[in-house]
Amino acid sequence: MKFPIYFDYNSTTPIDPLVLEEMMPYLTEKFGNPSSRTHSYGLEAEIAVDIARKRIADLIGASVEEIIFTGTATESINLAIKGFIEALNEDNIHIVTTKIEHSAVLNTCKYIEQFGHKVTYLNVDNSGLIDIEELKSSIKSNTRLVTIQTANNEIGTIQPISEIGEICRENKIVFHTDASQAVGKIPINVDELNIDMLSFSGHKIYGPKGIGVLFIRKKKPTIKIKEQIHGGGQERNLRSGTLNVPAIVGIGKACEICNKELYKESLRLTVYRDRIINNIKARIENSYLNGHPTKRLSTNINFSFKNIDNVQLLREMKDIACSTGSACSSESGEPSHTLIAIGRSPELIRGSVRFGLGRFNTDEEIEYLIKNIVKSVSELRQRAGFLDEIYTRL
Ligand SMILES: *Cc1c(COP(=O)(O)O)cnc(C)c1O
Description:
Layout (H helix, E strand, L loop, with lengths): L4 E2 L10 H11 L12 H21 L6 E4 L2 H16 L5 E5 L4 H11 L4 E5 L9 H7 L4 E5 L13 H10 L3 E5 L18 E5 L10 E5 L28 H39 L3 E3 L10 E6 L4 H7 L3 E2 L5 H6 L4 H5 L4 H5 L1 E5 L6 H21 L3 H7 L1
Parallel strand pairs: 1-11, 3-4, 3-5, 5-6, 6-7
Antiparallel strand pairs: 2-8, 7-8, 9-10, 10-12
Helix pairs in contact: 1-7, 2-7, 3-4, 7-12
The structure holds pyridoxal-5'-phosphate.
The site of pyridoxal-5'-phosphate has 13 residues, from helix 3.
């Protein structure tokens, strides 16, 4: 085993060796600009981009003209929301989202509010699910966009995307979903789910960093977007700038692998996930799973431990690379808005830890993780004077 063992796959993933192998020629001898169609360098780069676009489209059931390359999922989300609102060119637009979106969505919505548009932030229940009835009753005559994440990055809860899509379609409202945690982990078909726009990122699916995708529906209905970066007109004039060919080749290969491995991998990781959850529940007193027990990503575990400080716990588990809540919210030092929204007390938020599982975790690592958490929580509580409470149960 390589220490510290990586259990932070919800933050980012390593590049799959097969992805790197596919990328390498485009970082070296095949360096052409795909817009330079006057010679073979440009043409071979263009062909590589076309292949990647097809692989991405195939993973989500889209067509190649509906795939736009950006720099990150954050940029895709900004383009989707701002670009859509700007293209509408209406006053007083109403948007519906949730309280547990990634900051990329929440802060873009806050930005939009400055221009007089209104945003409804839907509540979630204590497992992180929205209430479909609340969604229905939030819809007004000026509601133009619903943006709800497919799955949560902190607690792994998977939203009822199919129902949300249906409601949006019935009400002729455009539906964008931040699928950064979900693409490649659960099956997604944009037509079956009535998704109009979808954002995700290379580095969460064993591709490189610095590449994002935005799916924009072209037909039934046609979604119009105003570009946010002006320039040479690449990506159907929606995102100018020379294409990041090696990263595009990488995310394309990453999508192809996910398409092939999705079911097998998610089954394997679900077994790991539930083994860890069941062991923690059985062996650690006063431990609380955050998020839904079953409507949950195979890659996510989030626990709150009573009478534990998560920063101390991470220090204690020095062989384990994991996270307190989400990497983004821990940077700002604020308590997680997601854990607040599911009703966790400040004390349990302080005791929350996220373990992200992924492709390269092994049986041996899972066993090590379980032993290490049980031991670390116990030792910290022991030190804090909770010896009796713990040992009667162990
Ligand atoms: C990681 C993540 C993002 C941001 O992705 P970047 O590519 O790093 O910008 C947005 N939403 C969710 C749910 C994420 O997990």
